[in-house]
Write a structure and sequence with these properties.
The chain is α+β, with helices and mostly antiparallel strands. It has 2 domains: 10-74, 434 Repressor (Amino-terminal Domain), CATH 1.10.260; 92-266, Beta-Lactamase (2-Layer Sandwich), CATH 3.30.450. Helix content is 45%, strand content 11%. The chain has 13 helices and 5 strands. The protein has helices at 10-20, 25-31, 36-44, 51-60, 65-74, 92-105, 124-129, 135-138, 144-149, 161-178, 182-192, 242-245, 257-266; strands spanning 110-113, 119-122, 218-222, 225-234, 248-254. Strands 2-1-5-4-3 form a 5-stranded antiparallel β-sheet. A hairpin with a 2-residue loop joins strand 3 (218-222) and strand 4 (225-234). The radius of gyration is 22 Å and the shape is elongated. The chain starts with 9 loop residues before the first helix and ends with a helix.
Length: 268
């Protein structure tokens, strides 16, 4: 796994991002309307980039918004992007849009997490899946990874836990490569060390369709039934705030008619 290590000056940081993106100096220069010579001078510290150049390079390198602030500070400029708490009055439109989306998706599960997978909002479909999870895991702040992979959480009910666990850990590794977050690394180390319980047997009330899925499904036991979901993650386009940039809305689409019918029966 590649990470961008902190160094003195903005040049080594930009070089780290460029190498992580597997982009040559010439390719970056062409995209940013610059020259390979200038990019080389910036990376070696022989030239101090302007604030506009730092932002332009960060955009073409797809640097996360939080890290763009870090690049600006290392180059001697003030941070450009605010980090407004989600509960701030200025974020009212964002909150309302998210709440409307979550409610509109019911009865299917949907939730919103931040960059460290802390659950910021969820709908009643998620509450259905959390039936039976012990109180100590439901105490705020809720963490989606901990709830899913903890041996007392959802993990014992997930039929395809090895595949789902591997996918979640790989997702976290990609996030760690993008965000130099000690909290995210600590969470990864914690959940990766959880023992993986054996999947539950499918009793007479369960269903196994055997139909191949177009994507890795989450197959979980609930109330004696096998529920199957396909998950999708959405983010905001062109965010201008660190908080908004790090919001992720995960929705779980029923992968079969039985799952959809069961959820509609629970929440007509």
């Amino acid at each position: 796994m590649t990470t961008v290590a902190p160094d003195t000056g903005v040049g080594p940081l930009l070089r780290g991002w460029r190498e992580q993106r597997r982009m040559s100096q010439l390719e970056l220069a062409l995209r940013a309307d610059s020259s390979a010579r200038h990019i080389s001078f910036v990376e070696t510290g022989r030239s101090r980039p302007s604030e506009e150049m730092v932002l332009r390079l960060a955009e073409h390198l797809d640097v996360p918004v939080r890290e763009r602030n870090a690049l600006l500070v290392m180059a001697g400029y003030a941070p450009r992007f605010a980090e407004t708490p989600l509960q701030d009055p200025a974020m009212g439109a964002v909150r309302e849009a998210v709440e409307r989306l979550l409610q509109g998706y019911e009865p299917y599960p949907a939730l919103v997490v931040d960059a460290t997978y802390t659950v910021l909002a969820a709908n009643r479909g998620i509450a259905v899946l959390l039936d039976g999870v012990p109180e100590h895991l439901l105490a705020p702040p809720l963490n989606a990874m901990r709830l899913t992979l903890h041996p007392e959480g959802l993990a014992p009910r997930i039929l395809n836990l090895p595949e789902w666990r591997a996918d979640l850990l790989a997702q976290m590794e990609r996030q760690i490569a993008l965000l130099r977050s000690s909290r995210l690394r600590a969470l990864y180390d914690e959940v990766a060390a959880y023992p993986a319980p054996e999947p539950p047997p499918v009793g007479p009330g369960g269903t196994e369709t055997g139909v191949p899925s177009p994507a890795l499904p989450l197959r979980i036991m609930h109330d004696g039934r096998v529920l199957s979901f396909l998950s999708s993650i959405a983010t905001f386009n062109t965010p201008m705030d660190v908080t908004v940039a790090e919001l992720a809305i995960e929705t779980f689409l029923p992968a079969d008619r039985e799952t959809a019918a069961h959820l509609h029966a629970l929440m007509p």
